[in-house]
Fold this protein.
Amino acid sequence: MTGKNILEMRGITIEFPGVKALDGVDFSLREGEIHSLLGENGAGKSTLIKCINGVNRKDSGTILLDGREINPSGPYEAMTLGISTVFQEVNLCPNLSVAENIFVGRQPMKHGRINWSEINRRAEELMSRFHLDIDVARPLSYYSTAVQQMTAIARAVDVQAKILILDEPTSSLDENEVQLLFSVMRQLRDSGMGIIFITHFLDQIYAVSDRMTILRNGHLVGTYNINELGKVELVTKMVGKDMDVIFSLKRANVPEDSPVMLKAENIGDGSRIDDMSLTLRKGELVGFAGLLGSGRTETAEMLFGATRAVHGEIFVDGEKVSIRTPFDAIQAEEAFCPEDRKRDGIIGDLSIRENIMLAVQSRKGFMHPMTRQEQTELADKYIALLGIATPDCEKKAGELSGGNQQKVILARWMATSPKVLILDEPTRGIDIGAKAEIQRLMLEMCGEGVSVIFISSELDEIIRCSNRIIIMRDRAKVAEVDGASCTQQDILRIIAEGAA
Amino acid sequence: MAGKRFDVAGLMQSKVTWAVIAEALILLVCFVIRPDFFSISYQPSTGMLYGSLIDIVNRSAEITIISMGMTLVIALGGTDLSVGALVAVAGAIALKFLRWDVLTYTTPGDYTVYPYILVIAVPLVVCALMGLFNGFLVAKGGIQPIIATLILMVCGRGVAQILTDGKQFTTGYSPFRVIGQGSFMYLPMPIIITVIVVVAVALFTRKTAFGAFVESVGVNPSASRLSGIKAGNVILLVFMITGLLSGIAGLIYSSRIMSNDSNNAGLNFEMDAILAVVIGGTNMAGGKFSLAGTVIGSLIIRTIVTFVYYFGIVAEATMAFKALIIAVVIVLQSEPVRKYFARRAAMKGGAGA
Amino acid sequence: MKNRQTLLTRITNPKYIMVYATIGIFLVIYAAGGFLYGDKGFLTLRTFVNLFIDNAYFGISAVGMTMVLITGGIDLSVGAVASLTGMFIAYGTTVLHLHPLTCIAAALVMGVGLGLLMGWVIHYLNVPAFITTLTGMFLARGVCSLISRESIDIHHPMIDALAGWKIYLMKFADGKWVRIRPIAFVNFNVLLFLVMIIIGAFILQRTRFGRNIYAIGGSEQSASLMGLPVGRTKVLVYGFNGLCSVLAGISYALYVKSGWNLSLQGGELEVITCAVIGGTLLTGGVGYMIGTLFGVLLKSVIPALITFNGNLLSWWGKIATGLLLLLFICIQRFVVTSTGRRKS
């Protein structure tokens, strides 16, 4: 833990047109440490990372690797210098085998030909170091995201890296996979590698890192040992103001006699979920807790018709409805923010206006178009209401930050004035400020009588916001607990052990 | 000031701008070489206007009509390779109905064996159904459009040949001649049909929300579905429209030659139509589309050909000449070049301020 | 639980399913042909070898096309470039009285140069491959017509010798080698086709260049982040495809012994069809030379069957090819959904 510095960055400044993304930032990484890099979106974390691996050119400052100045021109040159990066989205080729993904571009050769048996043997060795016993000759797409993530790390590690940069590697992993990743990280640290770790999950930072560096608005806030700083202090330093907003959120007040808004009886999709029942009262917020793959998303998709329920019945506002497609669900005044914002939510090349009016328009049908003026008024209303940061409603939605994109999707659904709103991981991958705001909006809507289903991997936000919590495990509901009186430990125990 | 500067840069970024500039330049060159290129005269015997400009619009009718549908297909992120084959199928069916039993009606003349309504309606319905088949493969089978439509491209001409037993019929039926060679309000009939089609497609896409749905599905089908758009139906409808428009183009084509030609009718039309759409500024990856741009793209392609004929450049050179001009347009429209000009324009504006 | 590689996992690796499907369907159709027309000699070696002789030029072009498709691109210019090669040879030898090798050299410079140029435009100017190569096709076709609009016969001793050269298939009988009956032989085109398939397979499976082609097809963005030379690889692939088009043109010229500006019209789509029914995905990233070899055979066995039938119009061939394409697309669709979603 007291190894010498392998990487030192001094006075790094990077300017983009109109903004200073980094302003005189110092950063150092020691041999054999896991160093977390923290900050809200736009604080400059990724800019700093991209400066180290050469994607962004710095305007001033120096980078020293083992005391020698370096100026990598791109990820490839950085890799040859011993700096490997694993990006947030797995940047590998799904059609190539696991082994080949590790070695492509530097395959061992024999008699001028690629030596396949050597590739497979070495890949097998590497993967077994990570406790993965798999057929490395199968295509990468055959395996889960976790294995793909490990493959990316194996590739990064095998190039004799001195520095490994992990940019949000855990965002799509479940708890067990995260633990596996952590044990690999510790193993690499103990062998002397310096690891830079970026994540939005605060717990993970405390679980695995030795030191942390906090950035805010392109400035360095400070570098601390992990035991120097508590969670609240950390968050305060990240946002630069006290996080009263988050901690002062009040869960919705649901009167006893509030009518049932959504009722599902024994629904199942014939393969993944078999028999699921739930009720949701007017103005109530029900949280779904459970690990990734526990059936949370599958249930939500069924309630919205994204996948079809082959049996069971769904009632909205007391009426039995037949929901076979999302269109039917929208007619029944449901709304759904999907988990994968980029793939299923935002329509990047279209403007904010078009993104917002889409669900309203599709409910009306295309033969009853909204005029341009109606669309603009609608969009402007929600831009103001949700505080979406944009010059006007004609900006492409794809150019917004993650938090603002999430608000656009929320606006799309709020515009339909739904009775039931289903939110699947609406706060994933966005910074703490935006998170707090989304939670606030959610609770406000409950106050206006909308019933909300809220799915999240972060237990503390589920507990903070929910009236009731449904706990899922192994694709079934195992328990339902009261949001006001349960604790994180209770829920974790149920998730781990089954029914209460 | 800043707003105006942004506009210049934005305009230079737009592909449609470059298409308009290209068309204007080609016409300018024509005018400089031969000022009478623009002259239009009235021919009382046929009741039609004549001139190079009229000819360009008239002869581009088939491609313009097809590319209206193709624009929507490309906005969905696909391509339809089968349109040329459908042109051949439409012609074959029309002539089949005009001359049903060649053994009985041995000589072509001013008659039709089956009612005229069938001669027109059946090819259109069949082409629309074939378009629907393409759409079905894409929407329900989840097959890449380029492959799905390759099937009909490969076997469409075979179907046309079998319908006519591999024979070429001719006809002299005058109501059929009107479609491709008649006139209305001093203008050749194909121009009138083209205008009607363009206006109809424009109204249908822009005065309803259909255009927005097409763009949305083209950018992100999954998100569009979850927003309640019936993406499958949008795809089906777009391919069906394209099939129908190919049928209309096929009737115009076969009326021009008063015959069916299953080998050559509509040959390479799919290529020209795709080219017209792309030159017109619609991105092949899908998303925003411009029908006006497509019309200009189609005109550019035809202007080049007319240019070559008009100036008596050897007809053999047409193809090579066309390729060269298209290459120039495409390079000018390419992203790096457009960005370069946009930067220049922005810098100039900045210096001016 | 060990999950290591064994012979069984190697054979059942899902990436080979499409190749198996191609080979399987070819065998089924071939067997059906044997059942229907066995008495007319469908099963003889001669018929089989003729499949190669009549389609070698498609096959040679399909080698390059397979690589282009694996990168996720497409090349529509191959038919026109092959046709232009034929025009070079015909016009050069018959009208200009040049040596065929000079003409071939000129054609190689033309074909490879055009390929490299198109590759450069596609990658560095970011113009869709479809549009770039379509323009290339118009250009090559246009130059064909500029050279001549008439078909030109080729008469040159070297061309005659090359076209006439053949190896008879022999069998060992009664203590000596005799030609098999009915006579079957392999000519220069067939050898060129097989050699190109082997070269193509070697490049794809055993060189870094070849593996980069797959990586680019899988995800171009990832490939460049992994430090692979994306631009260079793409440009070279189109250049190599240009080379294949020229070789296909030479082979076609030897086959018909003439050059015509309208020859091989639509050839590009036939070649693409061969690759697709050989298991190559138009989305890129998947494809094998052995699949392409059988794709060519599969596509050529249909006209052969129609010839053997004797009563069917040749147009049925087009329809049958279309149906075959449909069948393959459905299989691919099924394979993609069943393996793509399975996660261990």
